[in-house]
Design a protein that fits this description.
heterodimer, A: mainly beta, 6-stranded mixed β-sheet, globular, B: mainly beta, 7-stranded mixed β-sheet
Chain lengths: ~120, ~110
């Protein structure tokens, strides 16, 4: 069975500083990987995803993530954060089994930007 | 361009009452899902429907029932609400063909059981 671990439940970062949110997964088959963002009192929005090909994927709002198969990681990065990036970020994995596509989510990382 | 619509947005129930959370999508997606979100636990899958006419249990199905009414609608029913079901509930939909499109989420229903 697939699983996702987000080790950092909260990450405080000063405005304009870089940030990395960590995500590790486990699965016995090939996977798709996703990062979602949840702004306060809203639903989840897709930030970026890795399906295949280049291991560095770029998403919305200047975020990017790198897929590392050997370390089973998919860390999210941004070189310079803004106050508007304050949100909860969820990493998710979907095993590629054809037909069915169920996402398993991590427990989330709350990113707080300090002015 | 509505996407996934959930109703109601907020609800307060007394222990033992029943209610149905409604979800509808207008993207012609095959698969639909119900998750609950609790602090520190992320999103946990309650039930899902891979295609019209089918439903399956997820990680935390106890105390819930679902109905895939048609391709657009997927409802979640609490027959006898308990305080442990206080949570934020999200409905989502996807193409469901394993193509990696991911999910589209509704804006959630915040449920409090007192």
């Amino acid at each position: 069975a697939q699983s996702v671990t987000q080790l950092d439940s909260q990450v405080p970062v000063f405005e304009e500083a870089p940030v990395e949110l960590r995500c590790n997964y486990s699965s016995s088959v090939s996977v798709y990987l996703f990062w979602y963002v949840q702004y306060p009192n809203q639903g989840l929005q897709l930030l970026l995803k890795y399906l295949s090909g280049s291991t560095l994927v770029k998403g919305i709002n200047g975020f990017e993530a790198e897929f590392n198969k050997s370390q089973t990681s998919f860390h999210l990065r941004k070189p310079s954060v803004h106050i508007s990036d304050t949100a909860e970020y969820f990493c998710a994995v979907s095993e590629i089994r054809g037909g069915n596509e169920k996402l398993t989510f991590g427990t989330g990382t709350r990113l707080t930007i300090i002015p | 361009n509505a996407g996934v619509t959930q109703t109601p947005k907020f609800q307060v129930l007394k222990t033992g009452q029943s209610m149905t959370l409604q979800c509808a999508q207008d993207m012609n997606h095959n698969s639909m899902y119900w998750y609950r979100q609790d602090p520190g636990m992320g999103l946990r899958l309650i039930y899902y429907s891979a295609s019209e006419g089918t439903t399956d249990k997820g990680e935390v199905p106890n105390g819930y029932n679902v109905s895939r009414l048609n391709k657009r609608e997927f409802s979640l029913r609490l027959e006898s609400a308990a305080p442990s079901q206080t949570s934020v509930y999200f409905c989502a939909s996807s193409e469901g063909r394993g193509l990696g499109y991911g999910y589209t989420f509704g804006s959630g229903t915040r449920l409090t059981v007192v």
